[in-house]
Specification:
By secondary structure, this protein is of the alpha+beta class. The protein is built from 5 helices and 9 strands. Strand 8 (158-168) and strand 9 (175-183) form a beta hairpin. The longest helix is centred in the first third of the chain and has 23 residues, at 48-70.
Amino acid sequence: MTEHYADVASKPQPAFWYGLPHGYLRLDLDPPFERVVALIQQVLSLPDELRDRAEEVVRFYTGVVGLLNAQQVQGCAIGLHPDEAGGAVSSVLTVSTVPASGVNAKLVLAGMAGTAADNPDEGMRPLELPCGTGFIAEKKRRTVAPGRPPEAAGVPPEDVVWQGTVAVTGSGMPDIVVVQLVTAAVDLADDYRNVLLGVAHTLSFTDPSPRDEPGGDGGRRGSAATNAIRNDFG
């Protein structure tokens, strides 16, 4: 378990919190203007043979950030882990909110679960979490592969990915919180499902940050939610 918590909707007060597992780096979806300017200056100072590639990476980053913000994604982390062949496998973890549009969020979740029950390809089933009742769904689907397509190709190449989704809402929560994990390592679906469930079990609508509490040793003690998060990830 990493030593920080990702807080969401921090203006003025986070609505929910979750823990990030080892191997995941949080992507800044709202980088300060000064950092963006510094990044551009660094790219412009690169040698000509490196500048084009760096500019392409920056454009890709800004495009991804814009897309995630447009889809109300409030947290994103990139996972990179070694595989048995000496290489690495990657995954993308996102946390977002879906407005219930004035309807009871729990009723919306129940309706979604009922609809999905008629479609076994979605692999949806109920899920009890410390923060509330929701569901988990998983499927394999084809999507556009990352990277620049070959110049001779008429259409962008596609790849198969595993997509796992957890949707949950808490007591008095007006929105639905969606935790989603996507990876091209479809043969490791069982492992990534466990990662997704681990993150979902850390989800809390109560601030888990350590607080000063009176104790016999005079030290700081974490809340019950904090201890639960640490237990989930070790």
